[in-house]
Specification:
436 residues; alpha/beta; TIM Barrel; 17 helices; glycosidase
Length: 436
C-alpha cells in the first residue's frame, strides 16, 4: 500500500549537464577542458541520457515512480546570444511527451547550475543584464513547451553561490591553521575533506585553491576575464540578490505566457542545529541560508526544498562531524532525519506548498540507500500528517552521473550505469522507492 496520499509525486531527479553529455556550448564544458581545471575529469558523453532518455524514463515508470525532475539546458536552447536552436527545442518536446506517455509528471528546471558560455563572457551571474537574458530564455521555453509542463523550477539551488563563498573562506582559515601543525599536502587535504562535506554540491576545494592563480590567465583566454562568474562561483551579496531578481523576472515572463504554470525555485538547505552556546551562530547561518530569501519567493506557487544532511554549530562556528558517524562518499554525515526538520522550519516561515526536489545519498552499498529513503520518506509522511502541504518527494538521483568537480566517482543513483557500454542496471532502491 502506498505510503503517500493520492496525487503525491514520487520520483527522481537529474540535471542536463550531469547526464546528457556533450554540452559543448556551456560554461562547464569550457572549464572541464582547461589545463588548470578544478574538475577531476571531464563530463564527455556523461551517461548519454540525451539519446537514451526514453529507456531511462521507461525504467522509472516501470518501477512505479510517477514523476521525473529534469533540466532544460540553456546552452543548448540558446547556444549563441539571441540565437535559439529549434532542433533542441524539439528534443526537449520529445522528452516531455515521453514523460506524459508513461504517465510521469515532469518537473522542469530551467537553470541547473550550467549557463551558456556567451553569458559568462558578458559578465555572468554578477552582471545585472543577466536578469534580462534569463527572463528572455524562460519566456521562449514557455512559449515553445509550456503546454507540456505544469511544475517549473526557474533556478536550482539559488543560494549555492553564497554557500560556496562561505566555505571557500572557511577552507582558507582551516588550511592556514592546520599548516601550522602539519606538512602542507596533508593539511590541505584534511581541510578540503572537512569543508567539502559541509556543502551540498561536488567540489574539489584543494584543487580549486591550488590552481587559482594559474587559472586566471587561462580564464582570460577562455572567457575574456580572469574571474568568470558562473552560477556556482563564490557569490557577492549583490550577486546573491541578482539571482533572486532573475527568478522573479523569469516567473513574470513565464506567467505572462502561461498563467497556469506552477512556478518556484529550489534552495539547498541543511538541518541547522545548535549546541549550547551556538544558538546565535546557528541563527545567523539560517538567516544566510534561507531567511533572507523569503521576501523574494513568498508569492511563488511552491517551494523546492533540497536537503542531504545537517550542520551543527557551537559558539565557534560549524562543528566537525560527530566521531563515529557514518559518512557518504561526499563526506556528508548520513542523517535522513534532516529532511523533515528542514520541511518544518521552511514551512513555518514560508507557508507555501513544498516539493522535495532533491534528497539522496552517495554510497556504494544500496542497502544503505534503501534505509535512507525509508527514514527520509517516513519523515515526509509525518510532516504531511501534521498538515504541512508537501506535494512530492524526488530522490537525487535517477542515475549515477557526473557529480560536477568530483566526476563520476559519487554514486547517488537508483540506476547504475556502465559508462563503457552505457548499459543501465536498476538497483533495488529503485523498486523500493517505486513501491512507496
Amino acid at each position: 500500500m502506498s505510503r503517500f496520499p493520492e496525487g503525491f509525486l514520487v520520483g527522481a531527479a537529474t540535471a542536463a549537464h550531469q547526464v546528457e553529455g556533450n554540452n559543448v556550448n556551456s560554461d562547464y564544458w569550457a572549464m572541464e577542458q582547461m589545463q588548470y581545471t578544478s574538475f577531476t575529469e571531464p563530463s564527455l558523453a556523461a551517461v548519454d541520457h540525451y539519446h537514451r532518455y526514453e529507456g531511462d524514463i521507461s525504467m522509472l515508470a516501470a518501477a512505479g515512480l510517477n514523476s521525473y525532475r529534469f533540466s532544460i539546458e540553456w546552452a543548448r536552447i540558446e547556444p549563441r546570444e539571441g540565437e535559439f536552436d529549434e532542433r533542441e527545442v524539439e528534443h526537449y518536446r520529445k522528452v516531455l511527451e515521453c514523460c506524459h506517455a508513461h504517465k510521469v509528471e515532469p518537473v522542469v528546471t530551467l537553470l541547473h547550475f550550467t549557463s551558456p558560455k556567451w553569458l559568462i563572457e558578458k559578465g555572468g551571474w554578477e552582471e545585472p543584464q543577466t536578469i534580462t537574458y534569463f527572463a528572455r530564455y524562460c519566456r521562449y521555453v514557455t512559449q515553445q513547451l509550456g503546454s507540456l509542463m505544469h511544475y517549473v523550477c526557474t533556478i536550482n539551488e539559488a543560494n549555492m553561490g553564497l554557500q560556496i563563498a562561505a566555505i571557500s573562506a572557511r577552507f582558507q582559515v582551516q588550511m592556514m591553521a592546520k599548516m601550522k601543525q602539519a606538512q602542507q599536502g596533508n593539511a590541505s587535504e584534511e581541510a578540503a575533506k572537512s569543508t567539502e562535506g559541509s556543502v551540498q554540491v561536488g567540489l574539489n576545494m584543494q584543487k580549486m585553491m591550488a590552481n587559482m592563480e594559474k587559472q586566471k590567465a587561462e580564464n582570460l583566454e577562455v572567457f575574456g576575464t580572469e574571474t568568470p562568474q558562473v552560477f556556482v562561483s563564490a557569490r557577492t551579496p549583490e550577486g546573491d540578490i541578482l539571482a533572486m531578481k532573475a527568478h522573479q523576472a523569469a516567473k513574470k515572463a513565464i506567467k505572462e505566457v502561461n498563467p497556469e504554470l506552477q512556478v518556484g525555485l529550489s534552495l539547498s538547505l541543511h538541518d541547522i542545529q545548535a549546541k549550547p552556546g551556538g544558538e546565535e551562530v546557528a541563527a545567523k547561518e539560517w538567516e544566510e541560508e534561507f531567511l533572507h530569501y523569503v521576501p523574494y519567493i513568498k508569492d511563488d506557487d511552491f517551494f523546492g526544498l533540497q536537503n542531504y544532511t545537517r550542520s551543527v554549530y557551537d559558539e565557534n562556528g560549524i562543528c566537525a562531524t560527530p566521531e563515529g558517524a557514518e559518512l557518504t562518499q561526499m563526506d556528508y554525515e548520513i542523517y535522513p532525519q534532516a529532511l523533515a526538520a528542514c520541511i518544518r522550519k521552511a514551512y513555518a516561515l514560508l507557508q507555501l506548498p513544498i516539493m522535495v526536489t532533491e534528497n539522496g545519498i552517495a554510497v556504494s552499498d544500496d542497502e544503505k540507500r534503501v534505509r535512507f529513503i525509508d527514514e527520509a520518506t517516513k519523515g515526509v509522511c509525518d510532516c504531511i500528517a501534521e498538515g504541512i502541504p508537501v506535494t512530492g518527494y524526488l530522490y537525487w538521483s535517477l542515475m549515477d552521473n557526473f557529480e560536477w568537480q568530483k566526476g563520476y566517482s559519487m554514486t547517488f543513483g537508483l540506476i547504475e550505469v556502465d559508462r563503457t557500454t552505457m548499459a543501465r542496471s536498476a538497483k533495488p532502491s529503485l523498486a523500493y522507492l517505486g513501491g512507496l
